[in-house]
Design brief:
The complex is a heterodimer of chains A (about 220) and B (about 240).
Chain A (H helix, E strand, L loop, with lengths): L3 H13 L1 H22 L3 H24 L4 H5 L2 H7 L4 H31 L3 H28 L8 H26 L5 H30 L1
Helix pairs in contact in A: 1-6, 2-3, 2-6, 3-6, 3-7, 3-8, 6-7, 6-9, 7-8, 7-9, 8-9
Chain B lengths: L10 H33 L13 H28 L2 H33 L7 H21 L4 H29 L18 H33 L4 H7 L2
The chains are: A mainly alpha (about 220), B mainly alpha (about 240).
Function (chain B): Required for the export of heme to the periplasm for the biogenesis of c-type cytochromes.
Family (chain B): Belongs to the CcmC/CycZ/HelC family.
Organism (chain B): Arsukibacterium indicum
Chain lengths: ~220, ~240
């Protein structure tokens, strides 16, 4: 299941193509800073809309990062070799997902204190935001890998990927932002976290299978 | 158990089978549509509270129910296509998708037309409206994904996979949206024990629902026949059929 060679390869690729994961992080911060400019800088207003903004910016930046996930491997024949060969395709998919999360999800979690500062989020909400990002970004990575695998051989990627994947993000958006909202008015948010965890585990069980079959279809 | 189904996996057999079915389906769809809609729109009593504007349910409810029914049919075809590697089932997925999308759009538009006088707004972010809108996005995703490949076969397979992924996600999306906001009225006719709708309104509604279901089948047959011809155009039997 876990193959260190694949993981090392993905990490080495990321180290060599820094723009692939640095740009989405920059994009995340830029989108976040556009909202106060658009709706006005009143701290109360920002605090109300912060949970939604954070998660929408996260969704969009992960989406941006995922467009080219499989494109290069598809073009230079790596995926074809993997499908034809004896290596486990599942291990490759898991390595890809892990690398995607390390390069796009993890930075967002590390950035969450800065985000809280920008949007004026106070302590309980900050913790909730970090926790929802911790549970939600792996799910985002899984779904993006799925979308990317589906559109791998498509002639026009881009907007198509958004059309496919954004509807699938909706439950995550609802529960994650509602957890932060509950925390910011002093309510418990364990229920939302439990649902996020449940969705993550379900996706972890099913999505890699769907991704491997999408890869197989695309090279057949 | 399903041995009798096997011949229909062959495109030629299926083409002729659909051709045989099509006139019956078309005629009964038309008859049921006329009966249900004219009865429902013109001859049922007005609602004591909503007046005449409730009559749009005779279009709204059938299209909403069948938009979900079409998705179920599409996903079943996708499952058959992917598990048993049956080509015609992939084409069935693509045959159903635009019909389902149209039903979804009809349900949304008629719902908006009803919402304006009743709720005072064209659109509210209610759970059912939102899930129906997302259903439309899922349909459009399947259609768009299929169109994005230069290799027709790969496009068909990938869209089937997406249809199947969508059907797993649909309940999750539905319940999360439900949990998020609810304004739409509860189900009226699914309570089989004692429907909270008067029989004089119920019968035309049920006929309209049946009409939309039969119309869905008829249009699917029609589109599937076309898809078979397009995809199998190099086969001798198609050449002979079109006289080329």
């Amino acid at each position: 299941m876990v193959n260190m060679v694949f993981i090392q390869r993905e990490l080495r690729l990321l180290a060599r193509q820094k723009a692939d994961w640095l740009n989405p992080i920059l994009f995340f911060i830029i989108v976040l800073s556009l909202f106060p400019l658009g709706v006005g800088p009143e701290p109360n207003m920002l605090r109300i809309i912060a949970p939604g903004i954070v998660w929408i910016a996260a969704l969009l930046s992960v989406l941006l990062a995922s467009e080219r996930l499989f494109k290069d491997d598809y073009r230079n024949g790596v995926i074809e070799q993997l499908v034809a060969g004896r290596q486990s395709l599942l291990a490759f998919v898991l390595a890809k997902t892990l690398a995607n999360w390390l390069s796009t999800g993890l930075p967002l979690i590390l950035l969450s204190p800065v985000v809280a500062l920008l949007l004026g989020l106070q302590q309980p909400a900050l913790a909730a935001m970090a926790l929802t990002l911790l549970l939600g970004t792996p799910l985002l990575s899984l779904l993006s890998v799925l979308g990317s695998a589906l559109t791998m051989a498509a002639d026009k990627g881009g907007i198509l990927l958004a059309l496919l994947i954004l509807p699938l993000y909706i439950p995550l958006l609802i529960f994650a932002s509602s957890a932060i909202e509950a925390a910011s008015i002093g309510l418990g948010y364990q229920g939302q976290l439990a649902i996020l965890l449940a969705m993550l585990l379900l996706a972890l069980a099913l999505v890699p299978m769907a991704v491997t079959s999408a890869l197989r279809i695309n090279v057949s | 158990m399903f041995k009798w189904l096997d011949p229909y996996a062959k495109s030629e057999t299926l083409y002729h089978f659909c051709g045989k079915l099509l006139p019956y389906l078309m005629v009964s769809a038309l008859a049921l549509l006329l009966l249900g809609n004219i009865w429902g729109l013109a001859f049922t009593p007005a609602d004591y509270q909503q007046g005449d504007s409730y009559r749009i349910i005779h279009i709204h409810v059938p299209s909403a129910i069948m938009s979900m029914g079409a998705y179920a049919a599409m996903a079943s075809a996708a499952f058959v296509a992917l598990v048993w590697q049956i080509k015609v089932a992939h084409w069935a997925v693509l045959a159903i998708a635009p019909i389902g999308a149209t039903y979804t759009a009809i349900a949304l538009i008629t719902g908006m037309a009803w919402g304006k006088p009743m709720w005072g707004a064209w659109w509210v972010w209610d759970a059912r409206l939102t899930s129906e809108l997302i259903l439309l996005f899922l349909y459009l995703g399947v259609i768009a994904l299929n169109g994005a490949f230069s290799d027709r076969q790969v496009g068909a397979k990938v869209s089937s996979l997406l249809a199947l992924i969508g059907v797993i996600n649909l309940p999750i999306i539905h319940f999360s949206v439900e949990w998020w906001n609810t304004l739409h009225q509860g189900a009226t006719i699914t309570k089989f024990a004692r429907p909270s709708i008067d029989p004089s309104m119920l019968w035309p509604l049920l006929i309209s629902i049946l009409a939309f279901a039969v119309l869905l089948m008829a249009l699917t047959c029609l589109r599937l026949r076309t898809a078979i011809l397009v995809n199998e155009q190099h086969r001798p039997w198609v050449r002979k059929l079109v006289g080329g």
